[in-house]
TrEMBL record:
The keyword Amino-acid biosynthesis does not apply. This is Expansin-like EG45 domain-containing protein. Keywords: Signal. InterPro entries: Expansin_CBD_sf (IPR036749), Expansin_CellWall (IPR051477), RlpA-like_sf (IPR036908). It comes from Puccinia striiformis f. sp. tritici PST-78. It comes from the Eukaryota.
Length: 202
């Protein structure tokens, strides 16, 4: 089932997941799976054809196994009906993005606290790992191995499990749900809301 709840679009565009891509979708809490599919694209087939949207948030007030659609997507799926409930079939599909994945630092980050959003991925992200860079004479910590970051259960942000900062610079390794890995070097982690393009997409 799919449901549109009036007034949800602004929240969908500004909260948990990536803002890139097609019309936003919120999943019911039982489908949210601790944000595991945050940013994934979903193909929806209803009485009036097939359309695509992107998982942008969870819908805590939705009934189990339902999707909450943004107004434009609801208009397409329902053929312009008033907000309500429609039977649908849906499944996760590649997003077909033509641009690289982006790393977006959360507002408030510093060398002592880091949180990075993975935005615009072709498929869901399996993991994000970091290798802090050591600069001679700097305060940056040294790491000779990849450190796996913890994905937050309510968003597409990844943070160190220990809560300790990763300092200023690091190499980041994304592992996509399809197994592909992308390594991006010299990512600035201490600049609030800073955006860094990766070298590819899933």
């Amino acid at each position: 089932m799919v449901k549109l709840q009036p007034g949800t679009l602004a929240g969908l565009l500004e909260t948990a997941c990536s803002r890139n891509g097609p019309s936003p979708i919120a999943r019911s809490s039982n489908l949210w799976n601790s944000a595991a599919v945050c940013g994934a694209c979903i193909s929806i087939t209803g009485p009036f054809g097939t359309h695509k949207g992107i998982v942008s948030d969870q819908c805590a007030s939705c009934k189990a196994d339902s999707l909450d659609l943004g107004p434009e997507l609801w208009k397409q799926v329902s053929n312009g009906q008033n907000p309500g409930v429609l039977p649908i079939n849906w499944f996760i599909v590649p997003c077909n993005f033509s641009t690289p994945i982006k790393f977006i630092n959360k507002d408030g980050v510093s060398k002592d606290w880091n949180s990075v959003q993975v935005a615009g991925a072709e498929v869901p992200i399996r993991s994000l790992e970091v290798m802090p860079i050591t600069n001679p004479g700097s305060e940056d910590i040294e790491s000779k191995s990849w450190i796996r970051l913890t994905k937050q259960s309510n968003s597409n942000n990844f943070q160190p499990e220990s809560g300790k900062g990763l300092r200023k610079l690091a190499n980041l390794r994304v592992t996509c749900d399809n197994g592909k890995q992308i390594i991006t070097k010299n990512v600035e982690l201490d600049r609030p809301t800073n955006t860094t393009d990766t070298v590819g997409n899933c």
